[in-house]
Amino acid sequence: MRWLVFLSLLLALFIAYKGYFTKSKFSKTDNSIRHWTATMAHIQLMIGMILYFKSPIIQYFISNFKVAIKDFNLLFFGMMHSSLMLIAIILITIGSALSKRKDTDSDKFKTMVIWFTIALIIIFIAIPWPFSPLASRPYLR
Length: 141
Known about the structure:
The protein is mainly α.
């Protein structure tokens, strides 16, 4: 599911950048992609919250907070990852809602570009990449 959200966000950004720079009309398809990107992000948030609270890492983090907060990997997964992803989904939601309410097509695309790009950057920061200084986790476990 998370790859679908990522791909829909990339598609929405592609359409928004293209529409903004080519001065295109904001079509029904563009509006549907905007809407479904936000909807899929919300579904991913719900799935992520369920998995978050069932995770043994998070259960350990919550039950041994004072010890776990000193371990940066546990801190990343216990607080930073979930907080950053929540912020990204909030930004996608705000961007989608504001874009829907804009009057001109250019403003709709511009709003999507700004809010969705910031959300994508935050998502990239929150991913536990193997090369990330925030969390050391291999691609395959």
